[in-house]
Design brief:
Layout: H1 2-9, H2 15-54, H3 60-66, H4 69-73, H5 76-85, H6 93-124, H7 128-131, H8 135-158, H9 162-168, H10 173-179, H11 181-195, E1 204-207, E2 212-219, E3 223-228, E4 233-237, H12 240-243, E5 247-248, H13 250-255, E6 258-266, H14 276-283, H15 289-305, H16 321-334, E7 346-349, E8 357-365, H17 370-387, H18 401-409, H19 411-414
Antiparallel strand pairs: 1-2, 1-5, 2-3, 3-4, 6-8, 7-8
Helix pairs in contact: 1-2, 2-5, 3-6, 5-6, 6-8
Length: 417
């Protein structure tokens, strides 16, 4: 500044003009130095850093570059130059220093924010992130960062110690608790969800209260984002997963088996004892040959031992078409390539009702994919409906319009029977 003023004094200018012009020249010079420093930092230093990052074997530093941590850090260079140049202007030194320091604090907050984003992205590259998500903790860290940064900025502008401002926040604790109620509840819920492994990204959850039925795609501090099967997205408060009940289908997906639990309703009027001709036909069925042979030997031995009069089928033990049909379905499922043979497999009768006798299939498919599972289930019941008449059985269904028309056209109906 003295050099510039000495040069201007040689032109015979007034003192006021010299001071004004020297200040303007110095401001332009500092601005030029700051622009030059920023250019060198971004075009030379930053490119060297990026080149080093791209040519090493580590992946985490590439993520740091992608999150623009070094780019934001480069903004500190002009601010530092301006801050240390403030002493050149004694009248405005305090104002310039405060402005430069405020800018540096804001840039530092941005740098730490980018670092937290990079840390979250690095953590997500590991499989453990699906089991133990940390996005909620990252958001808490960001809230703390913004609060602390805001206090430091205010204390810098008013020229007070940050601890004085912090001490004054004690009186506002109730207000802060009210403002950050959801965040605090979300943090507590996030800790419980993570520590108890209740839900992970990728889990299929079902929560009727919130009309949610789909895959978890994101877990944040305040919400759990669920993409439903109709491609809509439901936002569930994190603490709702702790306070309310929900169903997680992860156990089914991990086990490798998905339950099939459906009934075939048999018309009870079609149930009867097996005749000799029926037994001969059943023995021709591949899955029933050994069963029929064993059962016939067992029944004949029992009836002979107890001197049963077999002229009446009511006496002693006899095969029924429903029993043979149940045994056939059991063997059919045992040999089905898409049924999980290591899990429960039951073909059972439920209590008969207005819709006939329910014959329930309780088994597990060995593929949990929804489309494949539905195809397996449909294939099994297609076969059951098709083979039921072979056993002399009819599927029960309520009379339809076609049945009534057919009944009216029958000779028995016309004769008044």
């Amino acid at each position: 500044m003295d050099f510039i003023r000495n040069q201007l004094d040689g032109y015979g200018m007034s003192e006021q003009t010299v001071i004004y012009l020297s200040n303007m020249i110095m401001v332009l010079f500092i601005a030029l130095v700051s622009i030059l420093a920023n250019f060198i930092t971004k075009k030379i230093v930053l490119k060297i850093i990026i080149h080093i990052v791209n040519n090493n074997r580590f992946m985490w530093d590439n993520i740091i570059v992608e999150k623009k941590v070094f780019h934001k850090l480069s903004h500190l260079v002009p601010a530092i130059i301006i801050y240390y140049s403030a002493s050149i202007f004694p009248a405005y030194q305090i104002l310039i220093e405060k402005a430069a320091m405020t800018y540096m604090i804001i840039v530092t907050i941005m740098v730490f924010n980018a670092l937290l984003n990079a840390f979250d992205a690095i953590y997500r590259s590991f499989e453990v992130s699906k089991i133990r998500p940390i996005k909620g903790y990252i958001q808490v860290a960001k809230i703390v960062l913004y609060i602390v940064g805001g206090i430091v900025v205010i204390s810098n502008l008013i020229g007070q110690n940050p601890l004085i401002i912090l001490s004054g926040l004690g009186a506002l604790s109730a207000v802060l608790m009210l403002i950050f109620k959801d965040s605090i509840l979300g943090l507590v819920a996030g800790v419980q969800l993570s520590s108890n492994d209740m839900v992970r990204v990728g889990d299929w959850i079902e929560m009727p209260k919130y009309d949610a039925n789909g895959d978890v795609i994101d877990i944040t501090l305040n919400t759990v984002k669920v993409m439903n099967f109709d491609k809509t997205i439901t936002m569930i408060p994190s603490y709702a997963l702790i306070s309310d009940s929900f169903k997680n289908w992860r156990g089914m997906q991990v086990s490798g088996g998905r339950r099939i639990k459906r009934s075939f309703y048999v018309d009870t009027t079609s149930i009867c004892f097996c005749t000799k001709e029926m037994i001969e036909e059943f023995q021709k069925i591949h899955y029933l040959t050994d069963y029929i042979t064993t059962k016939i030997s067992e029944i004949n031995a029992y009836n002979l031992e107890h001197l049963i009069n077999t002229e009446s089928k009511v006496n002693g033990r006899q095969l029924t078409n429903i029993g043979v049909f149940r045994a056939y379905i059991q063997q059919y499922l045992r040999h089905h390539p898409k049924i999980h043979q290591e899990m429960t497999l039951i073909v059972r009768q439920l209590a008969p009702g207005d819709n006939g006798l329910p014959l329930e299939i309780y088994a597990f498919s060995n593929d949990t994919n929804w489309a494949v599972y539905e195809a397996i289930q449909a294939d099994i019941f297609d076969h059951i409906f098709a083979v039921a008449p072979t056993f002399g059985l009819r599927a029960f269904q309520n009379p339809s319009g076609h049945d009534i028309v057919h009944l009216k056209q029958s000779p028995e109906f016309s004769r008044g029977y």
